[in-house]
Backbone:
C-alpha cells in the first residue's frame, strides 16, 4: 500500500430510471468498490427511482484508484440480476484536495475544479469539486453502462488523514 491520502466518504444518494429486472419493477442495491475495499447499500424493494442516502467509507491510498459501482436487482431464488455499472476517477478530487492545502482554504465555500464527462468517468454532466468548510466535496450523476437506462447520484467527500507530523515536534 502507498501513502494514505485520507478517508473517502461516498454517499449513494439516489438512482433514477433504473431498468426493470423483475416482472414490473426491481429491488435495487449498489455495490461500491475501491481497490480491494467493498461496501454495499441496503435493498430498496420494488423501486426504479430509489433513494438510499447511505454513506459508505473507504481509505484512499496511493496509487489513486477508480471508484467503481455496480447496481443489482436482489432476487431471492436465483442470482441477483445486473442493472448496470459505472466508474469515476478519483484523481480530480485528490488534485483538488491538494490544491485546497496549497491555497489553505478552510472556511466558506470555494470551487476548486470542474470535471467534464470523458472516458475516465461515466459522468452525465459537468461536476464541480468544492471546498465546503475545509472538506473537499464532489456531487456527481453517473450514467450506468451496459443497460438501457439508469443513473446514480453520488456525493463524494475526501477528508484528511491524520497528519503524522502534527504530533511530532
Residues:
Amino acid at each position: 500500500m502507498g501513502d494514505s491520502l485520507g478517508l473517502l466518504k461516498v454517499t449513494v444518494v439516489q438512482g433514477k430510471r433504473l431498468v426493470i429486472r423483475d416482472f414490473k419493477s426491481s429491488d435495487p442495491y449498489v455495490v461500491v468498490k475501491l481497490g480491494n475495499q467493498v461496501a454495499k447499500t441496503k435493498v430498496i424493494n420494488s423501486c426504479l427511482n430509489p433513494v438510499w442516502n447511505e454513506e459508505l467509507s473507504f481509505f484512499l491510498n496511493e496509487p489513486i484508484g477508480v471508484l467503481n459501482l455496480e447496481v443489482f436487482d436482489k432476487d431471492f431464488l436465483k442470482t441477483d440480476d445486473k442493472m448496470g455499472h459505472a466508474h469515476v476517477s478519483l484523481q480530480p478530487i485528490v488534485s483538488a484536495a491538494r490544491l485546497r492545502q496549497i491555497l489553505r482554504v478552510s472556511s466558506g465555500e470555494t470551487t476548486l475544479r470542474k470535471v467534464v464527462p470523458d472516458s475516465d468517468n461515466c459522468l452525465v454532466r459537468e461536476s464541480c469539486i468544492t471546498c465546503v468548510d475545509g472538506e473537499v466535496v464532489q456531487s456527481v450523476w453517473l450514467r450506468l453502462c451496459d443497460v438501457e437506462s439508469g443513473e446514480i447520484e453520488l456525493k463524494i467527500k475526501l477528508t484528511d488523514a491524520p497528519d503524522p507530523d502534527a504530533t511530532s515536534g
In short: The first strand starts at residue 4 and ends at 16. The radius of gyration is 17 Å.
